[in-house]
Design goal:
Blueprint: H1 9-15, E1 24-27, H2 40-52, E2 56-59, H3 71-85, E3 91-94, H4 103-116, E4 120-123, H5 127-130, H6 134-145, E5 151-156, H7 169-176, E6 181-187, H8 191-204, E7 209-212, E8 226-229, H9 236-247, H10 252-267, H11 275-285, H12 305-325
Parallel strand pairs: 1-2, 1-8, 2-3, 3-4, 5-6, 6-7, 7-8
Helix pairs in contact: 2-3, 4-6, 7-8, 9-10, 10-12, 11-12
Length: about 325
């Protein structure tokens, strides 16, 4: 995949977009019960917390263990989210539905169910989608999103799932031209590729959204990215404050962004998918959830991580207190 390479420092400075409020979407963690079922009560509470912080919740994402859910469980999570959001905007991962129909038809079935529930679908990566040619990827998205209120696309690196795929630049450009797509979540964990996506967006379709999924570079919002981040699920209130500080041109942004990035660097270390257990540990530490249970076959972090997470949480809390005092 060709990229723009490493831009010069002077070029990067010219890309900074100041005094801007990002479109902030939080991929909500889905806790599990002792009997390996989604904890609907804990999910409901978290969605309310995210919306109260001013972020848009996203469910049935990687942070929501969508790969571990049956179609029936996905639909139950969707129903819970629709009830929790009470007409407010929310985003929903749309993997292909079960059955023997064609792949575009199975994706479209899931998209239609999500739209009927009031959500915005994001076409979720799958093993079958990863096997398609670049032309077929564009054709599928065109078919799946045609005559909808608008969907999102999603490119996900293999650090997250084995079937992850980052599209060729030409393919990304063609996706941006589809009227049924409103934006693209980009999770390569590579700044250079995302900078290229932003440049393509500016040239091809300025109203198209690039949602950074780079939990190792959450300052991509300063370059004009919006975000859809799993890291935001750890502390949506801190992300909301950070975003306000950037929009206000307040220099406190940098200290809080650094602290949240320290959390991201620790939680998203290899193996990256274990960040979901880090999220559960952190939310339990904060008293947001009562346990840190995740699916039995999902990768876990050691209990010793909690002490480190506690130190980062204290750092964030101090910075939030300072921002509140000076507001």
């Amino acid at each position: 995949m060709a990229t723009m390479g490493h831009p010069t420092c002077s070029k990067l400075k010219s890309l900074i977009v100041t005094n801007r409020s990002p479109d902030a979407i939080c991929a909500v963690l889905l806790p599990f019960t002792d009997d390996e079922q989604p904890d609907q009560a804990a999910l409901f509470t978290q969605i309310e917390r995210v919306t109260r912080a001013g972020l848009v919740p996203a469910i049935n994402m990687d942070t929501g263990f969508v790969q571990h859910l049956s179609q029936c469980q996905r639909r139950a999570v969707l129903a819970a989210a629709a009830q929790a959001c009470k007409g407010k905007r929310f985003v929903v991962g749309a993997p292909p539905s079960d059955g023997d129909a064609t792949l575009p038809a199975r994706y479209r079935e899931e998209v239609d169910v999500i739209i009927a529930a009031g959500g915005t679908p994001i076409v979720f990566p799958s093993l079958e989608l990863s096997a398609l040619s670049e032309d077929a990827v564009v054709a599928l998205h065109a078919q799946v999103t045609r005559d909808t209120p608008g969907c999102l696309a999603f490119e996900l690196g293999r650090a997250f799932v084995p079937w992850g795929r980052i599209y060729e630049s030409a393919t990304a450009a063609r996706l941006m031209e589809l009227p049924g797509l409103l934006g693209l979540k980009h999770s390569s964990l590579k700044r250079e590729v995302e900078w290229e996506r932003l440049a393509l967006r500016t040239r091809i379709r300025p109203d198209f959204k690039i949602y950074t999924g780079n939990d190792l570079a959450i300052d991509m919002i300063t370059y004009g990215s919006d975000y859809l981040l799993g890291l935001a699920a750890f502390h949506p209130e801190a992300f909301s404050t950070r975003d306000r500080l950037w929009a206000d041109g307040d220099g406190q942004f940098f200290a809080l962004d650094d602290a949240l990035q320290a959390l991201g660097d620790f939680a998203f270390r290899a193996p990256v998918p274990a960040y979901r257990h880090s999220a559960a540990q952190f939310l339990k530490l904060r008293g947001v959830i009562s346990h840190d249970r995740i699916p039995r076959d999902a990768p876990r972090r050691p209990a010793s991580d909690v002490e480190i997470l506690a130190g980062i949480e204290a750092r964030i809390a101090d910075l939030l207190a300072d921002a509140a005092v000076t507001r």
